[in-house]
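Hey, resending since the last one bounced:
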Amino acid sequence: MELTKIAEESARGSFSLIVGTAASTVISAVAVIFIARLLGPSGYGLYTLAFVVPTLFAAIADFGLSPALNRYAASLRSQRKYSKLADMIRSGFIFELAAGATVCLLAFALSGQLAAFALQRQDIGQLVGLASVMIIFQVLFTFSSAAFVGLDRMGLSAIMMVLRDATRAIISPLLIVVGFGVAGAIGGQIAGWTLASVLGVTILLTSRQTLREMPSVVNHEKGMSADIETMMRYGVPLYIGALVTAMITQYQNIVLAFFASNAEIGNYVAAVNFGALIGILATPVATALFPAFSKLDLQTRREELQRMFDYSVKYTTLLIIPVAVLVAALSRDLVRAVFGTAYSSAATFLAIYVATFLLTGIGSQVIGAFLNGVGRTKETLKIALVQLAVFLPAAPVAAWLYGVPGLIVALILSSLVSTAFGLRLATRKYMMHVHLKDTAGSLAAALLSAAPVLPLIYYSRLPAFANVFLGAFIYLAAYLTLAPVFKAVKRTDLEILAPILNQIRILRPATAMIFAYEARLLNMLERNISPT
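The structure tokens again:
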């Protein structure tokens, strides 16, 4: 398979996930707005804390089968080993169902003790127990979604996300309004995971179209054990790495439970929710890159891998860094427009938090997808452990000294160290490269594009929503103009991106206008610098 064809498939898959993630994020944002406003900062903080333990237990229950299925679905399909893939899917489902049920019961039984010990809030044991019900459904959701991505049916993964968040958006606020409070918000979350996971598993196990006419092969016991062993051999390092990542995420909330009030936690989570705006671009692109890298062998197609790695870092940087800078610039109006003035600290937290996405410029969104795609999962684990080693001691000290902003800085520091370590592995061991000049150009264009937005931020008396839309329009126009000036966009980039993005019909009108504008700017710049 040619590199261009793989890139086109990745682009189509990324777009499906971007659309699904965007729809899911918008719906989820609506749910978060209603939940946060109805519960208030303190209630929203308790709602967040109730899911700390269940989320950790759900990560424990996966055992690496989801990322393994993602990879093997892509590789076995390319080899046309459909029967083997069908067996692997069924074996993985049985294992995940048993593991999810076991861990769910364990978390429910220990909910009271864990609430008192880990969260320093003995009175929310019942809320933690209720939230633990979601574990089994989250495990099955993750498994089936990973299978769909590996099968190049990313649209189905997107549908699952939309169903999950739409259900939550309807049921959670309704249950809060009728008097169930925080418990009602948790109940809506459980309902979303339940419906989406049941739909995903049903389609995965019964739809012949989804499995591409794979023959129905029933595993005998030995065959199932072999499938699980194969997946775990690949997936366990990823599993440990994902578990470390989940620990870091929930460890933040545990540290805050010791050093911050419920209202401060609510403000912090409100700020982090805006990171989902950037995740609309970051997560789908990184997810789609995983099977794309899986289709290229490291030994025989190293040059193609190097080009794909280079382009992936450059183009994710072009997408994500300007969005991160824009969110930071508009943080005050974004928070006011969405959550209201009650969440007064969230804007400051958000402006600091989005700095984590600037690390995209040195490969933070690509390195993991590359290493996992070529089967070097132990290297991914090392990266996760490096981040844990930095964050584990830094977080409580920083939170104790500086509160929530200190915790966020500790998170950024740990992400920077682990990404730098991962980049060192990728460049020295596998000869992958990041062109820092391109990153610097993108960052310079992004930062300077915020300059014309600043008067709007400080002097405008328009409503917050109007400031957000007007500021985003001004920023986009400035960035598209400055990107060629700082050589963040070159003519070769237009030649590479145009045929790839043209595969996505709905984007053609917009991309055609953008490419034409960029090409005209490049022509003007070339004429100005050419010798007379």
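The chain has three domains: 1-250, 274-479, 490-532.

Sorry for the duplicate.
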